């Protein structure tokens, strides 16, 4: 039976948070998967199961957790020959998820509008000075 899975949070990706699970020292190639709170298998962002020089296997799987998805997930690494598994879970707080700041949205609307109004005002002043 291999080592307990170790989970690390590796930053923001695709509007969510990339979480990686690593486990090593497995005899026979293990199966690794992410599961949500209900035990449903989550789609992987990446998967790498490799044999080390000593003949044992290591597994590394990643998932991107979004705010809409369940924020408590578990990493399960299983030896299919012995039908035994090791599992570790993590729960992510909402504050870790990227948020759209209302000020950023407001500035994104106001600044282009002001630029158009300034260009229109400049044109009107130029046209008025030309008439004089």
From TrEMBL:
One of its GO terms (molecular function) is signaling receptor binding. The chain crosses the membrane at residues 103-126. GO terms for biological process: regulation of cytokine production; T cell receptor signaling pathway. Pfam families: C2-set_3. It is found in: Membrane. InterPro entries: BTN3A2-like_Ig-C, Ig-like_dom_sf, Ig-like_fold, IgSF_BTN/MOG. SUPFAM superfamilies: Immunoglobulin. Residues 1-87 form the Butyrophilin subfamily 3 member A2-like Ig-C domain. One of its GO terms (cellular component) is external side of plasma membrane. It comes from the Eukaryota. Keywords: Immunoglobulin domain, Membrane, Transmembrane, Transmembrane helix. This is Butyrophilin subfamily 3 member A2-like Ig-C domain-containing protein.
């Amino acid at each position: 039976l291999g080592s307990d899975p170790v989970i690390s949070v590796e930053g923001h990706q695709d509007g969510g948070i990339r979480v990686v699970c690593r486990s090593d020292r497995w005899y026979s190639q293990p199966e690794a998967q992410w599961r949500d709170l209900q035990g449903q298998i989550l789609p992987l962002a990446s998967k790498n199961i490799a044999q080390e020089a000593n003949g044992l296997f290591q597994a590394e799987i990643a998932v991107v957790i979004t705010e809409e998805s369940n924020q408590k997930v578990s990493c399960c690494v299983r030896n299919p020959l012995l039908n035994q598994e090791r599992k570790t879970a993590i729960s992510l707080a909402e504050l870790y998820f990227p948020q759209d700041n209302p000020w950023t949205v407001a500035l994104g609307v106001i600044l282009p509008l002001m630029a158009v109004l300034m260009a229109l005002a400049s044109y009107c002043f130029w046209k008025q000075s030309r008439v004089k």
